[in-house]
Design brief:
Elements: E1 3-8, H1 15-24, E2 29-34, H2 38-46, E3 52-56, H3 64-72, E4 76-81, H4 86-94, E5 99-102, H5 107-119, E6 153-158, H6 166-179, E7 184-189, H7 196-199, H8 208-217, H9 223-229, E8 231-234, E9 237-240, H10 254-267, E10 270-275, H11 296-304, E11 307-312, H12 316-332, E12 339-345, H13 354-366, E13 372-375, H14 378-387, H15 391-394, H16 399-412, H17 418-427
The structure holds adenosine-5'-triphosphate and magnesium ion.
Length: about 425
C-alpha cells in the first residue's frame, strides 16, 4: 500500500510541481492532504490518516513543539530546504527533523526519505501523554559511565518529594567539579519552582533555561547563545537558572529541554541538572493526548542523562519515599539506572549504625545499595544559605563539603583531593 503523506511546503515556488511529481509517478507515495500551515498539518496528523509529513523550513510557526506533536501522532517528518541553505537545514534538525533534503532532490529520493523516516520514526510521545509499561529490576549501575561520543556528560540530580537535598547536592556537586578543573554547567530544571538562583545569590529574573528553551523551540539555539544565557559564577562554573515561578513550567517543553541539553554537552564537559521530584505520567489519563505534560521536562532530562543520581534523605519517611520514587521511575523510564546517594545521614532517626541500617533497608526494598553517603551538616548548609554562596566558599572544611567533593571527584573521574579524603572515606559506600 502506498505511503500516505501530508505536505506543508507552502511559500516555496516548487510546491505544486513536487507534489504533482510525487503523486503522479509510481513512487509508492500518496499525498493525502496539502496543508497550508502548521495548524492544519497538526489537525491532519491527529486524524491518523497519514504516516509521514513533508514540510519546508519556511513554514510559518514551525517549532520543536510542532515537530514533537507530529512524532507523538505517529507521523514521521521529512524537511525540505532551498538548495544550499545549510542554516535552514541545521534549524530543521534542531527542531527534531532527522531527514532534511534540498527541495530540488529527485522525487524518488524524497519518496525514499519518507519511507526511511517512517521505518525509523522515533517513539511517539515524549512531549505528550504516552503510557509506558513496567519492566524488570535493572542491574546495579556503574559510576561514572562512559561519556557519550566524547561530548560533555550530563548528570541529573533527582530524588523523591520531601526535600531530601537535590538542590544542595546539585549545587555542591557542580561547584566542586568546577573546582576540580572540569568545565561545568549547572542547570536548574525544577518545573515546580527553581531556587538555584537564590541559593547562589543570583538574580532570578534572568531568562536562564526558559530563554534557552525558547531559542531551542525556534531552532536558533547554539553554544554561544547558551553561554550568553548562563551566569558565570566563577571560572569553570556556569549556571542556567530555572523558572522561579512554579506556574511557568509550560515554558520548559521537553523537546526544547532536550535540545538545550544537547547544546550543553557542546558547551561544558559536565552538565549537572537539578530536577524536580515528580515523574508521574498522570496526563496520560487525559483524553487530550496532545496536552502538555508538566513532568515531561524531568522525564526528558532523566532519559538523556548519562548518570542519574537519586538523592534520598536518611530517616524512615525519606527512605519510604525513596522506595516509592524508584518504583515509579522504573515504571516510566525502565532503562534508567539511578545511582543512590543518601543525604543528611545522622544518628537518631534510625536505630544502630545509620549507614548500615539505611543501606540494608534500601537493599531490602529496592534491590540497590546506596553508592554514596553525605552527612547531615546543618551548620554548613545554613552558612551557605545565609550567604548565598557555596559550601566551598563558606564552609570549606565542613564534612558535607568533603563528601560532595569526593562525589564530584568520582563523577569527574579524578582522584579526590587530599583535604576531602577523610570525610569521603568516612561517609562513602555502604558495602
Ligand atoms: N546534608 C545536609 N545537611 C543539612 N541540611 C541539609 C543537607 N542537605 C540539604 N539540607 C537542607 O535541607 C533543605 C532542603 O534541601 P534542598 O533544597 O537541597 O532539597 P530539595 O530536594 O532540592 O528540595 P525541593 O523539593 O524544595 O527542591 C535545605 O534547607 C538544605 O539546606
Ligand atoms: Mg530543590
Amino acid at each position: 500500500m502506498a505511503l500516505q503523506v501530508f505536505t506543508a511546503v507552502t511559500g516555496a515556488g516548487w510546491e505544486s510541481e513536487l507534489v504533482g511529481a510525487l503523486d503522479r509517478d509510481d513512487h509508492g507515495v500518496t499525498v493525502v492532504r496539502r496543508c497550508v500551515d502548521v495548524s492544519e498539518l497538526l489537525a491532519a496528523a491527529a486524524t491518523g490518516t497519514g504516516q509521514a509529513a513533508l514540510l519546508s523550513a519556511e513554514l510559518r510557526r514551525l517549532d520543536g513543539e510542532a515537530v514533537a506533536r507530529l512524532h507523538a501522532a505517529g507521523v514521521a517528518v521529512v524537511g525540505l530546504v532551498e538548495p544550499g541553505d545549510e542554516l535552514a537545514a541545521q534549524r530543521l534538525r534542531q527542531l527534531g527533523v532527522a531527514q532534511v533534503l534540498p527541495a530540488d532532490a529527485d522525487p524518488e529520493v524524497i519518496a525514499a526519505a519518507l519511507r526511511d523516516a517512517v521505518a525509523g520514526a522515533p517513539d511517539a510521545g515524549r512531549d505528550v501523554a504516552d503510557p509506558r509499561a513496567a519492566l524488570p529490576v535493572p542491574a546495579e549501575p556503574e559510576l561514572p559511565p562512559a561519556p557519550r561520543g566524547g561530548r560533555g556528560r550530563v548528570v541529573a540530580v533527582w530524588g523523591p518529594t520531601g526535600a531530601p537535598g537535590r538542590t544542595t547536592v546539585a549545587v555542591g556537586l557542580a561547584d566542586e567539579t568546577a573546582r576540580l578543573g572540569v568545565d561545568t554547567l549547572l542547570v536548574d530544571a525544577d518545573v515546580y519552582g527553581g531556587v538555584v538562583a537564590q541559593v547562589l545569590g543570583l538574580l532570578d529574573e534572568s531568562p536562564g533555561l526558559a530563554g534557552a528553551a525558547r531559542l531551542a523551540g525556534t531552532g536558533t539555539l547554539d553554544s554561544a547563545a547558551l553561554a550568553r544565557l548562563a551566569w558565570s559564577v566563577h571560572p569553570g562554573l556556569r549556571v542556567l537558572t530555572g523558572p522561579a515561578r512554579a506556574d511557568r513550567w509550560p515554558e520548559l517543553r521537553p523537546s526544547a529541554v532536550s535540545v538545550v541539553l544537547e547544546e550543553a554537552r557542546r558547551l561544558a564537559d559536565l552538565t549537572v541538572v537539578d530536577c524536580a521530584f515528580s515523574v508521574e505520567d498522570d496526563e496520560e489519563l487525559s483524553f487530550d493526548t496532545a496536552a502538555p505534560r508538566r513532568n515531561g521536562a524531568t522525564l526528558a532530562v532523566l532519559e538523556q542523562a548519562d548518570t542519574v543520581l537519586c538523592v534520598s534523605g536518611a530517616d524512615p519517611v525519606a527512605l519510604q519515599r525513596c522506595v516509592r520514587a524508584l518504583d515509579q521511575l522504573r515504571e516510566v523510564l525502565p532503562d534508567v539506572e539511578p545511582v543512590l546517594v543518601v543525604n543528611q545521614l545522622r544518628r537518631g532517626p534510625v536505630p544502630g549504625d545509620p549507614q548500615e541500617e539505611v543501606s540494608a533497608a534500601l537493599d531490602r526494598f529496592t534491590g540497590r545499595r546506596p553508592h554514596f553517603f553525605l552527612p547531615a551538616d546543618r551548620r554548613a548548609t545554613d552558612a551557605a544559605l545565609a550567604a548565598g554562596r557555596t559550601l566551598a566558599e563558606v564552609a570549606p572544611a565542613s564534612p558535607l563539603r568533603s563528601g560532595l567533593r569526593g562525589l564530584a571527584a568520582e563523577l569527574a573521574g579524578v582522584p579526590a583531593p587530599a583535604a576531602g579524603r577523610r570525610g569521603v572515606l568516612r561517609m562513602r559506600r555502604a558495602g
